[in-house]
TrEMBL record:
Family annotation (NCBIfam families): lgt
Family as reported in the entry's similarity comment: Belongs to the Lgt family.
Organism: Rhizobium leucaenae
EC number: 2.5.1.145
Keywords attached to this entry: Cell membrane, Lipoprotein, Membrane, Transferase, Transmembrane, Transmembrane helix
Keyword Transmembrane: yes
Segments traversing the membrane: 28-46, 71-91, 111-128, 135-156, 204-223, 230-249, 264-284
Subcellular location: Cell membrane
Enzyme category, top tier: transferase
Membrane topology: Multi-pass membrane protein
Function: Catalyzes the transfer of the diacylglyceryl group from phosphatidylglycerol to the sulfhydryl group of the N-terminal cysteine of a prolipoprotein, the first step in the formation of mature lipoproteins.
GO CC term (a single one): plasma membrane
Protein name: Phosphatidylglycerol--prolipoprotein diacylglyceryl transferase
GO MF annotation list: phosphatidylglycerol-prolipoprotein diacylglyceryl transferase activity
Amino acid sequence: MLTSANLAAILPFPDIDPIAFSLGPLSVHWYGLAYVAGILLGWFYARRLVDNGKLWLNDTAPLTRAHLDDFILWVAFGIVLGGRIGYILFYDLDPVLANPIRAIEVWNGGMSFHGGLIGTTIAMILFANRNRIPVWSLFDIVAAVAPIGLFFGRIANFINGELWGRTTDVPWAMVFCSPHVLAAHQGVCPAGLDPRHPSQLYEAGIEGIVLFTVLFILARWALALKKPGTVSGVFVMGYAFSRIFVEFFRQPDEQLGYLLGTNWLTMGMVLSLPMVAIGLWAVIRARHVAARQTA
């Protein structure tokens, strides 16, 4: 428990209003701005990748800026709908079955990365087939920019004081309680008063900055886009390993807790494990296809 003796050693949780600004009755939240920033910055970086023909097989990008401009709405719907439906199915099914209106009560949380990934994958397959674009190249472009959105999303989680970590005594521990958090929860601090890992920042750093850097090097220096499927495979594996690692520091969702009677296995780990195999298969497949083409 938090005491006056160790209070000074704990980093203060910044009291940032989850509402970035208001326009009359409309309140714009940092969480929504994070989605907008992730999608727009990802779109900008994707355009830069497409403009550089040297990065692609036969020195020609398999899609154009116009394709990306059209695709931005597809990916936005895939992320939002998939993320929300995935959260309901993976984390909140029983409460929604008991009260179906809860499905649209987004203020009760939440969004699922794994659901968003499925939604985005469906959107990519449909868009690629409709526009006769090589689907693996579209996978690679989206994978290369995805860590940008992950970074902003985790920063928004931190601002909201949600998805906090497990209790700890590390020097950078935080108590996830502030006037804005209290106001949002009727004067109750949902994370309690114990110092916890700022696991949102861990995820922002690993899933966002580190994974983006790895994929940037693969795409720009190793020319991995010339082997369609490589960048997307590495992204899927990289996210899975990052998520599994951070889950050891992140508090599991209250309605699920730890799985199978353990004190460590979480739903995030279970959903990430198959991604390791899928990502590895994608990388191996890409190498075999490239070898056949050069044989």
